[in-house]
Amino acid sequence: MASLNLINAAAARLAGHSRRTPLLNAPLLDRVAGRRVFVKAECLQWTGSFKFRGGWSAVSALTPDQRARGVIAFSSGNHAQGVALAAARHGAPCTILMPADAPGVKIDNTRAYGATVVLYDRARQDRDALGAALAANHGLTLIRPYDDPQVIAGQASVGLEIAEQATEAGVTTADVLTCCGGGGLTAGIALALAAHAPGLRVRPAEPEGFDDTARSLATGTRQRNATLSGSICDAIVTPTPGDLTFPILQRLCGPGLVVTEDQVLRAMALAFAHLRIVVEPGGAVALAAALFSSDLPETVICTASGGNVDPGIFARALAA
Amino acid sequence: MASLNLINAAAARLAGHSRRTPLLNAPLLDRVAGRRVFVKAECLQWTGSFKFRGGWSAVSALTPDQRARGVIAFSSGNHAQGVALAAARHGAPCTILMPADAPGVKIDNTRAYGATVVLYDRARQDRDALGAALAANHGLTLIRPYDDPQVIAGQASVGLEIAEQATEAGVTTADVLTCCGGGGLTAGIALALAAHAPGLRVRPAEPEGFDDTARSLATGTRQRNATLSGSICDAIVTPTPGDLTFPILQRLCGPGLVVTEDQVLRAMALAFAHLRIVVEPGGAVALAAALFSSDLPETVICTASGGNVDPGIFARALAA
């Protein structure tokens, strides 16, 4: 199968460059959940999210000539930082298109990872046209956040590690809950587990009101979110499941899970108290589902997919 | 050397039971520090601190008969939780003596790990006499927090892992900064590194006003702290270096480092932002020294020795 070859090749390129993040658990967290909960702590990955894997996979798959010309990505968040650091470590020029009203710390961090940040006016400029023009003029390769086979193959390395670490922990049967936006991480993990740990079933988790994937899986056709703003889980809010990712999810995943914003904040506070990791709201959706959903087996594995969170929002979670 | 045999035997007993915590670093943290900083994230250890290692080492070194009678420890903090979980996993009864005014969450957590918590009145009861009576009546073995060869040998496993992980990261020469209270962790790491990574020199870090170890190393005789209260770094405040630990520190460590409370809070916030780990004040002292001291080499490794922190204090660090 083509995708498995891509996954194995991406894993080989990532070896020694991405961090093998720990699969954490804690007796006191299991007590709260009433089940065994393992957390794949991708917030400890380079740049604070799994996005570094997809970025590295994509950049490392380019020809030397493509790399020398450089890459471009559209993102104000984790994808931007993941691609920026991956490109920098390959010596590839990197341009990131960000809205001018993005938080200053995200712009600063993306620049600190070595990218050239181009700001645009959300209200007055067409991002896609601007990006296409930049890419054409400079011969840049666009790295999409999830609808790219090399990006999905990179995120699949999370699944390969979960398969190994579950075996080390003696777990052969479990639901694996993923924080799901466009579906790159979910599709990648699902492909890896289908090949290496068939007893582990993937289920995407989403915030209430932004559950396009759950509804798409339930109805069999791709659904859209009514709005894209207003969620604290901004990192995983996308209009609709991806062209490439949705057929994979349909084939391999169980039903989606939906959590409330309050559950997400409580999950962040419990990860703070019992695992001592920093998880951002969009990265805590799967843990919230693991802790607070009723429709789950005795053992659950979930991704803590990112940890880039505004201190104010984190303090709000701690106070909740 | 007797201590190396103890260390190797403790490591063998810990294998598969303690967590091999990651050695983290981040490009943006290095920028702040102006040097390369690696962080041994013991906040990700079972019970949220390195103390689980010493507890496990001590409990697992007992005879079956001693284990069946049980263990006792005096602590309101990380040592209590480490010993409690280690004992529970050995099926050994565990009694923890805690002051009645200890934070409720610490008492609850220690009970949740399976220990019998005996509360005493700090003002009216003599803790040592009470503990001695309990130990004598029930045949319990006392596990001291640092002045115990098996506890030091257990903490030394942090040093064995640092030696391996530094090699993996290509680091052969560095200062290794430790959060230092009674000196169990510092002595253990120093013994392990002297044997396995002679290019790595240990230096204890302490909070301003509670720098008994730095002053003891500087003067060559054990100094005492003027007071034991009033520090946010309560986890590492002890009256004076240990009987067993100080001679080891004197033989193997470089000069101590002292940091301010404000630097500790800033280190906690930077670990939040760039490493996405939760570090308690006493566990952030070495990172604060790594980030803000001038008298350091190009590469520094430091322990983030614990992550059990009150949400209010953590929020204060984020707001600073």
Explain the overall architecture.
The structure is a homodimer. With about 325 residues, chain A is α/β, with parallel strands linked by helices. Chain A folds into two domains: about 1-50 and about 150-320, 3-Layer(aba) Sandwich (Rossmann fold), CATH 3.40.50.1100; about 50-140, Rossmann fold. The first copy, chain A, is about 45% helix and about 15% strand. The first copy, chain A, is built from 14 helices and ten strands. Chain A has a six-stranded mixed β-sheet with strand order 1-2-10-7-8-9, sandwiched between helices. Chain A has a four-stranded parallel β-sheet with strand order 5-4-3-6, sandwiched between helices. In chain A, strand 3 (about 70-75), helix 5 and strand 4 (about 95-100) form a beta-alpha-beta unit. Chain A is globular, with a radius of gyration of 18 Å. The interface of A and B includes residues 21 and 109 of A.
